[in-house]
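Consortium newsletter contribution from the modelling node. Members have asked for a concrete example of what our holo predictions look like. Here is one, prepared for the zinc ion complex that several groups have been discussing at recent meetings.
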Amino acid sequence: MKAVRLFGKNDIRVVDMDLPAPGYGQALVKVECCGICGTDYAILNGAFSGMVDYPITMGHEWSGEVAETGPGVTHVQKGDRVAGDTCVSCGNCYACLTGNYINCKTKKNVGTTMTWDGAYAEYILFPARHLFKLPDNVDFDSGALLEPAATAMLAVVQARVGLGDNVVVHGTGPIGISAALLAKLSGAAKVMITGRKDFKLKLAKEMGVDYTVNTARQDMAGMAHDIFKGEGADAVIEASGSEMLMKDSFEIVANSARISVVSFFEKNVNLDIDTAVFKDVSILPVPGNRGMNMPALRLMASGRLNLKPLITGRCRLSDVPDVLNNLKTDNEKKIKIMIDCAI
Ligand SMILES: [Zn+2]
Ligand SMILES: [Zn+2]
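And here is the predicted structure:
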């Protein structure tokens, strides 16, 4: 099979590999689509190099069709359409046995750090217990968008977005826009999204987000004040990785607000903890997508969550090294690039 492998920092190649054979409890899945993620770009550039055991196959946002199952597999069979989890847990440690498998001490992350080989490939080998069957009306594109959808959902859940809330989402990547839409589905009264690219803000608005703010030329705190009539934001979802926006969030929140953080900053950020204490503000982590894959799939199947407008480009497996190398320079008009992995 063809696979796109990373052999070291900035060393990415299309290679031929033997087709893996599914062992006990495993399925071999023919990959249909795989999304390219900002995390993949960061890994290519060595951002997490101490945590990556080269060579690896990247790709953690994927969907496909079960091609073969190993012994002991009962809940999926050949021909089932599936998406995969973002980590492979041991299934036996304290975290796993208390239903908290994303914090499994020996877990492998799919296509990223401490790596289980991912889906930049024609086939992926996967434990069947980490596969999610796609409902009939959820296509492969939506299936490959399940991971950002589920991560965005945990960001909304962690921020405890409730009926009537004023919500701010920082960041117009796939997770930011998905979180803004999920905040609306959770009953938020007003959702404001911030970003620096007009075309991304325009798409967010077309997909149903109420208010957009371009932080490259507009005053975020002033806009929040006007939009929320001085009442502040009850929930903030930080999906931009901007230290300035994270700091300014303390200014725009109402008392007892929640700020969930789904982005990476890749540096230490100084935060005004005193203000957080005085205003009773909670800061909550989003370490993946704990338990959110099935609810996200149900919402997709119900027709109430359609993230496919986020797909702004497509490519083939053989194009992936070029596409990834140029991801940031070509960033003007791109949100999610989907790889068609079937050759
Ligand atoms: Zn991702
Ligand atoms: Zn475990």
